[in-house]
């Protein structure tokens, strides 16, 4: 099998057979931070260079999304929207490729001045120019600011910090953000978005007039204001950290669709003195004293309501208000699920909750101070997404509306009646609680046709009536996780996982001493069997040809016999906390088939009985093996310091460590030559390691 690197080389070489526009599309999906590595492929080099230089952040402060090979696997999560490059390297790239960026970001004055002196045309040819500036000398910001003004540069977006009072601005087309910077006039023609940090303004310096066609305004205030808001404003965000309430000049804003308030002292929406008849989205955050939720009922067209770190609006949805509301999200403090300075009334301990009839998304999180009454709970039939997290439920049974597609339950305790069924529209279902009780099994015999993910995760105890017949899995099902339901071999067989298309199977805690060889589907890519009581493994996992990851943590594998693994795809094997003595039984396939270069990572954390000589033999023979072990053994620690394949984890106590067993395992492999032991060389040359071993023997050093 080819290594990951070789597979990547083949992938990019094969791209050359595609049309240029298709190649460009594929390259555009890759993380920008890895694009320079692809420049080595000559046939696609021009396309890669074009993509790199299309969006550039020029700064002396470069960064990478990864710092080591392990993190590199997470590069797909890179959020770079512009490639970071140093000024001089950028100039070299311009000279080589003769391409100008479409998006150009400049983050400091030294970079800006360098571009002005070397190639100012770059600033004018960029379609989108973003500047972010802080004076080089905060005690005398004028020289820096004059450089901006005199350059005649027109910015698409500009952020200015700590410039104090300024009398004029560079040309700006869309977006201006100011922090510790005060303007004489905020009526800036053409501006679409303005962000003001006004915490250093005096009360008399708060601006009163803004550009009338502005669409988005962000305000960080510390004083009350009578600011007149632009008539065409569509989005307003107001953040205050003071004890004064923020009130605007009384006005009607018919275009305003989104408001977000961070105001600890605001009690009512009426205090803002704004009339917003067409508001669609309202977000109240950290409004600790907000109590007049009735003031929200005049928002007839509200579609999205989010409340964070405020009291729960008990009576808000009584009656027929909010007929257009589609999303309601409530989250108490994310720290402890409590609210500051709030005495919980008795009514919160047995809440009857109602919701608008047309609601589609409902999320209640961290509301540990209240308890939802399941006997009176009626969820809207229109609901498609439901999340109840860290919110207690009363005694009783939880039911789901038929149209629910995405369900996420994470509560202290939840029970389901014998006739419980999953919604027919369900796609992803997660039920997590300290205690989960299923009084029947009908739901698992009638799984929805489109179900792809099912998680049943009990923190302490899961109870379910034993299965009596085989489960039939929908073809769409890809992920199944079962925790703390104490699954035995018979129940494992009746789950009928073999007759599924599952790609990820995770089963935590069970009673399966001897694991049969015919339980799992060929489709499985990640198989996790943790705390299952396994003492004997099947002779082979080779039938699982698509298996990439195998987790056997917290089992009893001290006397395991040789087992054949599917080398074609298996990349990761976790044997942590499994009383492991010998590593070699798990690598027999590599040895028998002479597949010494196949890459595989084996983790043996918390296995103090692991035989060091056996581990060194395997590292010596199998060049593709990367091994993670605890740092309890000095020999392995010393070797790891000059090895890229042997990694030392933090030392953990092994509750299964037995000195007699450890000594016994030493005897099993004690008769071996020092040439057979891995000594830490990262070279693929056995001769190099042999030479080192010979030198050690001459010096009389022990292994």
TrEMBL record:
Q: What is its main location?
A: membrane
- CC annotations in GO: membrane
Q: Which UniProt keywords apply?
A: Glycoprotein, Leucine-rich repeat, Membrane, Receptor, Repeat, Signal, Transmembrane, Transmembrane helix
Q: Where in the cell is it found?
A: Membrane
Q: Where is this region: Disordered?
A: 675-703
Topology relative to the membrane, per the entry?
Single-pass membrane protein
Bias category Basic residues: which stretches? 693-703
Superkingdom of this entry's organism? Eukaryota
As recorded in UniProt, coiled-coil segments are none
The name this protein goes by in its record: F-box domain-containing protein
